[in-house]
Structure formats: C-alpha cells, structure tokens
Amino acid sequence: MQATSHAGYAGNHDHDSHGHPTGWKRWVTTTNHKDIGTMYLWFSFVMFLVGGAMSLIIRAELFAPGLQYVSPEFYNQMLTLHALIMVFGAIMPAFVGFANWMIPMMIGASDMAFARLNNWSFWLLPPAAILLTASLFMPGGAAGTGWTLYPPLSVQMGMGMDMAIFAVHILGMSSIMGSINIVTTILNLRTPGMTLMKMPLFCWTWLVTGFLLIASMPILAGAVTMLLTDRHFGTSFFAAAGGGDPVLFQHIFWFFGHPEVYIIALPAFGVVSHVIPAFSRKPLFGYASMVYAIAAIGLISFFVWAHHMYVTGIPLTGQLYFMYATMLIAVPTGVKVFNWVTTMWRGSLTFETPMLFALGFLVLFTIGGLTGLVLAMTAVDIQLQDTYYVVAHFHYVMVAGALFSAYAGLYFWLPKWTGHMYNEKLGKLHFWLSMIFFNIAFFPQHFLGLAGMPRRIPDYAQQFADFNVISGIGAFGFGFSQLLVLVIVFQAVKGGAKASSRPWDGAHGLEWTVPSPAPYHTFEDPPVFNQAEAHG
Amino acid sequence: MSHPASASRYFVPEPSHWPLVGSMALLLLASGAVMMMNSLANGGYVLLGGFAILTIMLFGWFGRVVGESEGMRYNLQVDRSFRLAMGWFIFSEVMFFVAFFGALFYIRVLAIPDLASPEQAVLWEGFRDIWPSAGPAAKDPFSPMHAWGIPAINTLLLLSSGVTVTWAHWGLIANKRQQLIIGLALTILLGVLFLSLQVYEYLEAYSHLNLKMTTGVYGSTFFMLTGFHGFHVTLGVTMLTVILMRSIKGHFTAERHFAFEGVAWYWHFVDVVWLGLFIVIYWL
Amino acid sequence: MLCGTAPTLSGEREKMARHSNNDHDSKRLRTRFTGRLFAGLLGLLSSAANAAWELNLQEPVTATARRVYELHSLLLWVIAVIFVGVFAVVAYSLVFHRKSKGHKPATFHDNTAVELAWTIVPTLILIAIAFPATSALVDMRDTSQPDVTVKVTGYQWKWGYEYLTGDAAGIKYMSVLSTPRDQIENKAPKGEHYLLEVDHPLVVPVGKKVRILTTANDVIHNWSVPAFAVKTDAVPGFLRDTWFRAEKEGTYRGQCSELCGKDHGFMPVVVEVVSEEKYAAWVADQKQQMAAVAEDPNKAWTLEEQVALGEKVYTANCAACHQANGEGLPPAFPALNGSKIATGPQQAHLELVINGKPGTAMAAFGGQLSDTDIAAVVAYERNAWTNKLGEVIQPADVKALRGK
Ligand code: HEA
Ligand code: HEA
Ligand code: CUA
Ligand SMILES: [Cu+2]
Question: So where are chain C's domains?
C-alpha cells in the first residue's frame, strides 16, 4: 500500500507540490487522505493480529475441560481485550481506512474536508492502543469484565480498568472527529452534479455510519465517565445503596452498543454493494431502496438496545416493545440482502477473490442475521442469553460479515492502491481457507449454546468437550490462514502485473477513472461527473 | 486584501506535526490521571506535563488555522465545511449531555421508585420514593440545592449573555467594531460571573448543605451534570476570549466570520443546556 | 498439558460413540435443521442413559421450557426456509448466470413492485411469529401465586438460598461448587458432573410453582437452569423474580450466566426436584439440623476447636481468593499469610471481615456468616500458616463490633 507514495505522481498535480517531508516524518505529519487511509489499514491489520492472537489464547484454553494454560483472571482479561481490540482497533479502523482512501476519490474531491484533523483522528489510535495493551502489565492486570464493562464488577477492577476507560475516551474522540470529517466531506465536497441520490453507496453507508458514531460515541464516553467517578470519586450512579442502579449502566452502554454493531455492519454493506455489481457486470439493483434501507437501519438501531438486556428484569412491557422493535430491523436488512441477490440474478458473473469474499459475506452474514432474529425473541433469548449461541451469532455477523467484507474491499481496491494486481491464486486460497475454517470454528458454537454452555468461562463441563475441540481447530486454522494476507499484500506492494486504471471491467465510479496506482493527489479540480460513472 | 481562493479549488493544508503532539498530550494526560487516581508517585507531574503540551498544541494549531484564515486561503467551500462540522460537533456534545440527563431521568423515574417499591422491601425496608434522595443506605441528612437562589441568578446571567453575543454579532455585521468588542467583553464577563457563582455554590454545598459527590445519586447527578456543564462554560469563555482578542486585532469581516459564529453557536448551546439543567436539576 | 487430559477426552469419545448419529450430524452442519434434529436426538437418548443430566438441558421439564423449545423449533424452520429460499436463487445465478458460460448481463436495476413485495412479506412473517413469541413470554413472566418462594443471593462465587414461605420458611444455606480442585487442575480424572455439582443443592417439591427471588451481594450474577427455561440476573441491591413448576423429579443443573469475576465459570446451580414426601422429610431434617447447630453464644472455645471450625469456614468462603495456603493471588487478592492486617490488631482484622472493603472484591461477610463463624475464621487466619498468634476470639467480641 505504501508503494503508492509518489510512484504514480503524474496526472493533474500542479500548485500543491511544495516539499513534502519524507521518511517517517511524512507519515506522522501527513495531511494526505491516501497516506492516512494506508496508516489506518496497517494499524487495523496489526491490531487484528494482536486481537486474534488473544482469541487463540482463548481457544487454546478452551481446547479441553480443566484449566490448561492460563488462570481464570487472565482468561477474562484476554476476553475483554480481544473484543475491545477487535471492535475498536481492527474492524472500525479498517473501514475508516477504506473511507479515507476511497470516499474523496469516489466523490471527486481532492482530499477530506479537514485534512489535518484527519491525521489527528488516526494518531489518536496508537495512544489508545498503548493504554489498552499496557494495562495488561499493570498491577492487577487489564480489565477482566468483558467488553461490556458492567459494574459493579468493573468497579472492583484495578488500574487496568482506568486505562481502559481513558482508552475508550480517546477512541471516542478519534471516532467522533473522524466521523465529522467524513460526513462533512460527503455533504460538502461532492463534485458538481453528483447529487446525494447519485452518490456511490459506500458513501451512503458511511454518511449514516458517521451519524451513528457522532450520536453514540459520546453516550459511551458518558457511561465510562460515570464509571470512573463511581470508582474513584464516591458517586453512586451504579450502586443501589446510594439510589443508583447497576442496570442503568447497561442501558447506557447498549444505547451505544447496539448502534455500534451497525456501525460495524453498514460500511461492510457499502463495500459489498460495490463488489457485487462489479463482478455481476450489472448495475446495483434497487439503489433507492438500498439508501432507504440504510437510513432505516440507522434509525431503528437506536430503539432496540434492550434486546441485550432481556434477563436483567426489565418489565414485561419493555421486553415486548424491544422484541418487536428488534424484529423490525430484519426488514430493511432483508431488503438489502434481496437487492444483492437480484443484482446477481441474470448478471454475467465471475469469481475473483473480491467477489468470493462478497459471496461468503452474503451467505454467512445472512446466517448470523437469522440467528439474530432467533435471539430477538425474548422467550428464546432467555434460554440462549450469555451462551455460545450468542458468541456464534455475533462472530457470524462480525467476522464473516464485517471482516469478510473488509477483505472483499481490500482485494477490490488493492490494484488501485498499489498499481499491481494481487496474486489471484493466493487470494482464492485465502478465501477458501477462511470460509472453511471459519465455519468449523463457529458453527459448532451454536450447538454449544443450545446445549447451555455459558460464554465467558475458562473451563466447562465435559459434555461440551467435543464441539470445543472442533471449534478450536477451526479457530487456529482460520487464524493462521489470515497470515496469507500479509504475503499477498506485500507481493502486490512490491510488484506484480500492472493494473490498469479500471482493472475490473464491471466496476464503475470516479475512483476507476484515475490511474492505478492512484496519484498522490487526485481531483485537485473537481472532475466532470458523467452518467456512466453514476450509481443511482 | 485579495479575494478568497476560488471555489473550484480545494484547500488542503500542508503537513503538520500538531496532531501528533496532541496525541502525545492526551496519552500523558490519561496516564497522569490514571496514576493519580491509583496514588502512584508523580502522577500529578505527568498530568501537568500533558496539560502543558496540550495547551501548546492548541495555541500552535489554532494559530495556524487563524493564519490560514486571515491569509484568505479558505474559500467558501471551506467555510461551509466549518459550519457543517461545527453543527455536528455540537450535536455530539448534546449526545454527551443526553447520557447524563438520561441517567438522571432513569434514576428518578425508574430506579428510586423501584428501590422503594413494596417488592424490594425485603432488601430496603422503609425506603421511600422521594426526590431528592441519597439512596436507601444514606446516613447523614443533606439539603438539596434550591432553585430560586444562585441558580436563578445564574439563569439570568446566562440568558443575558445570550443577548450580548447576539448584540455583538449585530455589531460585527453592521461593521461597528466598538459594539462587537463591548458585546463580547460583556458576554465574557457574564460567563465569568456565572462560573464564580457556581464555585460559590459548590463551596456552599460542601460546607453548609452537606451535599457532596458522595451524597448518593442526588449528589452524583447534581455534581456530574452541573460540573460537566460548568466545564463547557469554561471552554466557551476561553473561546470567547480568543474571539475577543481577534476582534480587537481587527480580524473578521462583516461577510466572513465563521469563527465568531461557531463560538456563538457553542455559547447558545451551553445556554440551552443550562435551561434544561435548571429545570430538571434545581426546579423540579 | 494436553496429554493430561487425553484419557478424559478419549473417555468422552467412547461416550460419544453411542451418539454416533450426532457425530454424523455434525458433518452436515450447514443446514439449520440439524440443530433441531440434534436436540431431538439428545432428548430421545436422555431417557435411555442413566446419569443423563447432560441431556435434559435440552429436554424441557416445565411447561414454559416446552413452549420455549417449541418456539425455537418453529423459528428454526422459518429461518431455514428463508435461508434455503434466498440461497436457492443465489445458487441458480451462480450456476447459470456466469460469464464463463457466456451469459450476457441484463440491465434492469429497479422494480418497485418487487421491492415492495419483499418489504411486506417479511413484515408479515414477522408479525406471524410475534404471536407465539408474545404469549410464551407473557406466560414466563407470570410469577403470581407461588407455592414456594426462595430468595437466591449471588455471592462471589457461590449461591445463597433462603426459603421464605411455607414449612421451609427460615431454612437458609450456601451452595458451593463441590468439584475438587485436583480435577480442575487436571491432576485427577474428571467426574461425571464436573463443574456442575455443589455441596448443597436447592431442593424443591415436584409439581409446585416455585418463585425465585434473585439478588446479589457483590456483583451481578445470573441464576440459570436451562431445563426450566429460567435465567434471571441477580442484581446487587435489587430483587428480581422468576418461576418454574418442575414436572419431573430429578436433578437439574445450570450455571451462573453473567460474568462475575475470576470464578464465574465455577458457580453452578443445582436444583433437586423431589416428591412431596421427600420434600417434607428434607424440610424436617433441615430444621432439625439447624436447631442442632444453633450456637451457644456463651460457649468458651478452645484454640484447637476454633481453628478447626475456622479452617472449614475459610475453605468455603475465603480460599477462592486468598487461597488455601494463605498466599492469595497478588496483586488482585492479597496474601493473608504474614499480612499486616492478619497479624496486626485483632479489632481491625475483625472489622475488615465484617464490613469488607467497598470498591474491592473483599465483601462484607458480616451478613453471610454467624458470629461464631467470623470469630473462628479470623482466629484461623491469625493462627494458620506462619501467623502463629495463638489468639482465641470470642463470638461475643464479634457481636459487639457488629453494632458499630
Ligand atoms: C455486525 C454486528 C451485528 C449485526 C449486524 C447484528 C444484527 C442483529 N443482531 Fe446482534 N449482536 C452483535 C452484533 C451484531 N448483531 C453482537 C456483538 C452481540 C453481542 C454483544 C455482547 O453481548 O457481547 C449481539 C447480540 C445480539 C442479541 C443479544 C443476545 C444476548 O446477549 O442474549 C440480539 C437479541 O435480539 C441480537 C439480535 C440481532 C438482530 C435481530 C440483528 C439483525 O440486524 C439481523 C438482520 C438480518 C437478517 C434477519 C438476515 C437477512 C434478512 C433476510 C434474508 C430477510 C428475511 C428475514 C426475515 C423475514 C426473518 N444480537
Ligand atoms: C469484530 C470483532 C471480532 C473479531 C474479528 C473476532 C475474531 C475472533 N474471535 Fe471473538 N469476540 C468478539 C469480537 C470479535 N472476535 C467480541 C465482541 C467478543 C465478546 C467478548 C466478551 O464476552 O466481552 C468475542 C469473544 C470471543 C470468544 C468467546 C470467549 C468467551 O465468551 O469466553 C471466542 C471464543 O472462541 C472468540 C474467538 C474468536 C476467534 C477465534 C476469532 C478469529 O476470527 C480471529 C482470527 C485471527 C487471528 C487468529 C489472528 C492471526 C494471527 C496469528 C495467527 C499470528 C499471531 C502472531 C502475532 C501477534 C505476530 N471471540
Ligand atoms: Cu456468578 Cu457468574
Ligand atoms: Cu444489539
């Protein structure tokens, strides 16, 4: 990805070619959206490996009943950091990286609206990552509360908890500033003629995602701030003795947390909405209804939070309301699935790696969504809450959903970034290994959950042993298959077949009109927007 | 003065080291705070160091922005971007307050009545659903803060400060620099008065009313909401001061003065939040 | 490490051989039908096998659990049909609309009628599902008119049971994991009910409506028994309730289902459902035992007696954190061996145990333990390991401190 640098620095650059710093200084001071996008993507991949390594510790410990390698406290810390790092460190930055690279090119802007702020949004991530990982080495270790940080357990934790709280504050700042930037860019910097309803769908998903982030991250920050004062300043927001309520934290957390899962899912939908039409050689079906569905999902996601809290003793009427509201979200999501399916219908399909990952996404995300629907039924959820069924559900939507979609985007845009085609054979191998091992790792977890195996335990009863062995094998296979990505990306950065400006014959959009690799500065003058590259 | 850059050219700033400096400042601030809260040695110094670096960064960064603005490097498109961004930023701040207001609402409407309900009598015999409450295990009595003393005065102060910024804005539009400067100065004065009264109110609460952060949920929500608001007033006053300085230096024109407007919006936002606070914290 | 557990695993294999059908099923994991088949098969086998507790997790033993079971089966069919329907279309495209087969792309990109249809039809399906889902839930939440009421308190990491009504009123005890440490650390072969066994299960009569009131002492726990479809958070400072009416005698097992710290995985729930006669006998027996141990507050304790009792109390209540050898798990859980408090003034030590330390995992044991037990456990700590202080502590001293 770095290779883009000045290599293809041809094109329409002129006035802005004042001396750019080189070496490490280029990266820390850059205001270039492509540099920043690249940094986001590398950061997210490193975090993915770190978070993944933690998940392998989890799976190793669960390989057999009995305590194997780690103590229960350490297990809990791994669990918490795995989730926080994956969600905030790997998946979210990956899609912000895509947004940085692609949105200005898609809408014909030369950069993000606030290029300097953009750099800060990125450079806030390393301090947060440092706080999170360093907390492992503090007395008492990292927070061992699960990523949900529920008090009063989180009040008992040591200073690792405080570090996690401040990490969340910093991550929140980064997300909010990043989102304001993206939203402003989309609203204000589109090239003349590109109306909102003609803009690429990826931009639409990010517009709504940005809104969700701006609205929900402050809520999380508020929640952890109250946690902090409960821990150190004697307040009693979450302590019954002082008139507070531990469940209050859960309400606030999930008021953030549920939109959060769509923050992860929506950009993934966006990527897939570009990949599927490109390899079907057919326009996206139902552009307008896609847009309405995205907006509906964004809106409804603020009104369903307590489906994570069915067993906390909320009143029956509350349970009923949240059950109905949650079911409702299946409708717009279904619209999207049906639109993708219809886009492929009577297309002219080919199956390069991006398409394979998009298809993998489609199948597995739908499974995850459908199990989500099962969980939405309060009565059933009471059986399944806090069991491995939930773990299976959300890894289907987040790993096979968001992560697969991120891979689809990576392979789709890699030629544009590096100017080289990636190794298609290795790419396909990566897909098939991922697809197979993912299912081996996570499908059996549905059965574990149905049989009643609780989540967040380091040791389990004997009847769960066999499926855990299978799941462990799958997890290790899946994890090591991901190292292929490194090989593939390095190869493409270093060399390989030259990519044309439009390496995929079915791809449309302004980003495909610039050379590959994309010049350091693109669209310094707004391009002419013609119907052939429009999406709506 | 030259014309603003043409609207068809995008503005992209040069590379800058301020973001990285800002990140380091935040890392130090966070580390220092963690160290202090866990009584580790030197936490205070780390915190202070972080704060110092942050201040330098803010001066450096905003100095740069002001320079670019005065150097007429921002076109109308950039101006629109600023407006949009300020709007979204204020929205995110509103959501921050929503979390705390939501907590207060939840506690008053759900948690306290629930704790006092007959079903919970096994646990909290004799606890009654009255607000203000410090919870079922409260020991020492306290007096709540009354609405019609300092808080009412503070409401008046903030409301009139809203009027004075608007008056200053009129002055700016009408090219009456005197009015602009006096209006801003008055606004800042009102803001400072507000803050001083709030400090007095807090001292009063701690020394005479036995109302503290530790006074159950009433104390928790009272100090969290008013404190967080006070923090925003402080920010607002700081920003107003910067704007005042710039006005004195002769920045801003009748047509182009986004920085002024952004701060004015922010001030109005702080104002509106106070009205909410006054009603739900002090009055009801 | 793995070698250590290998015998167990292969033992487990043998058991699974009997379930060879299931093994076969696991290969066809892709269709959601198998989930149901699987559950069904487990249910069938449960009647055959002898100590078959592991299977009745799926076999409902209350009317509510059966409704949930049926609701889940229904949902499984619905989502399976939707899944197959959608991906049949996809599969068709993948096979017939390939470029390699020379298929030329169509150009359509909108169809309002179709788009409306696939908005409305799913909505209708959802509305249809909502009816059974609602009625099952309403039934689950109806805790009125119980025959027996038990208050369940979650502690880190054990359950406290207290019978509130009927003949059993006043019976009160703790229920702690009884799996030996050796099994957990792979030093001994694991028993059949590994991690799902306790010293004193909850005992309830068959066919009676049992109302469970949950609360907690320290952090949130969750009292859960899958066979009853019961799962309710135990929130400190609040009471929640749920209920069940078990239809069959037997022993039913569940686990704490809310992360509650280090030993969250080690606080099982065990409920014994017994006939009415057995229940009456159990109640009588409990009452008698309680009378027998009713303490004589003025008893003068000798050091040996007290340390012996104290060791028991320590093992049951303190060893989870401070460890049997008194070394704790620093820095999270301090060592008591040689600690300042455990070797310092007696009163501070007693007060700490009675009142706990707010904001840490050190709970207030004043509410959990009797004066005698507190005196004993503190005396034990002050005499065990290298803390040889030789002090006897009178329960009366504890009583005196409690008032403060
Ligand atoms: C990317 C992230 C993501 C996404 C997209 C979703 C999507 C959904 N989730 Fe998921 N969820 C999580 C991430 C996500 N979830 C996480 C992380 C947790 C656990 C958090 C924790 O506790 O740690 C969780 C937990 C969770 C719970 C709580 C479980 C518990 O703890 O007890 C519930 C309950 O309602 C739920 C429901 C749903 C539903 C209904 C959807 C819907 O949006 C799904 C909609 C999609 C479809 C339904 C499929 C496609 C539709 C069709 C083909 C149309 C036809 C369909 C019908 C008519 C039915 N989720
Ligand atoms: C998007 C988010 C995301 C992603 C991508 C993943 C990815 C994975 N998760 Fe994660 N997971 C969560 C989010 C995510 N998870 C959340 C939110 C929870 C809930 C936590 C809670 O309860 O609070 C959770 C919990 C969770 C559990 C439940 C633990 C428990 O409840 O006790 C398990 C267990 O199997 C698990 C496994 C995995 C595995 C095997 C992967 C794999 O996909 C990972 C694959 C990747 C790798 C394995 C990396 C490969 C790297 C190497 C092999 C080399 C290592 C070397 C170096 C570091 C140089 N996860
Ligand atoms: Cu108790 Cu988990
Ligand atoms: Cu959710």
Answer: 26-140, 148-292, 303-402
The tokens 């905030």 sit on which residue?
A88
Task: Report yes or no: B142 and B216 within 8 Å, Cβ to Cβ.
Answer: no
HSE value, Cβ hemisphere, 13 Å, CA-based, for B202: 13
Which of these is catalytic: A101, A204, A262, A407? A262
Q: Which structural domains are found in chain B, ordered by start?
A: 1-74 (1.10.287.70), 75-283 (1.20.120.80)
SS3 content of chain A, % helix, strand, coil (to 5): 70, 0, 30
- DSSP state at residue B144: P
Structure-block tokens of residue A275: 């990949």
Read out DSSP for A64-93? SSS--SS-HHHHHHHHHHHHHIIIIIIIHH
Q: Is A169 known to be catalytic?
A: no
| Distance in angstroms (rounded) separating the CA atoms of residues A487 and A479 | 14
In chain A, positions 167-226, which contact chain B (CB-CB < 8 Å)? 167, 169-170, 173, 176, 179-181, 183-185, 187-189, 214-219, 221-223, 225-226
A252 is a domain residue: yes
Q: In which band, very low, low, confident or very high, does the pLDDT at C18 lie, cut at 50, 70 and 90?
A: very low
Architecture of domain C26-140: Orthogonal Bundle (1.10)
A14 is catalytic: no
Ligand 4 mean position to C290 CA, how many Å? Answer: 48
CA C347/CA C404 separation, integer angstroms = 12
Which atom of ligand 3 is nearest to A454's Cα? Answer: 2
pTM of the model: 0.90
Res C15: pLDDT = 40
Does the CA dihedral C180-C186-C190-C195 come out positive or negative? positive
Using CB atoms, which residue from B26, B95, B220 is nearest to A127? B26
- B123 in C contact zone (CB under 8 Å): yes
Phi-psi region of C338 (alpha: psi -120 to 50; beta: other; left: phi over 0): left
CATH classification code of C303-402: 1.10.760.10
Probe site for chain C from A292, A320, A382 (most C CB atoms < 10 A):
A382
CA–CA separation, A366 and C82 (whole Å)? 10
Give the pLDDT of residue A10: 36
Which residue has 């791809």 as its token pair? A507
Residue A494 near residue A458, CB atoms below 8 Å: no
All residues at 6 or more sequence positions from A355 whose CB lies less than 8 Å from its CB, including other chains: A275, A276, A278, A279, A349, A408
Distance (angstroms) between ligand 3 centre and the Cα of A395 equals: 23
Q: Shortest CA distance to A208 belongs to which of A124, A98, A297, A306?
A: A297
Per residue in A179-209, pLDDT (tens digit) is 999 999 999 989 888 889 989 999 999 999 9
CATH class, domain C148-292, is mainly beta
Taking the C-alpha atoms of residue B193 and residue B200, their distance in angstroms, rounded to an integer, is 11
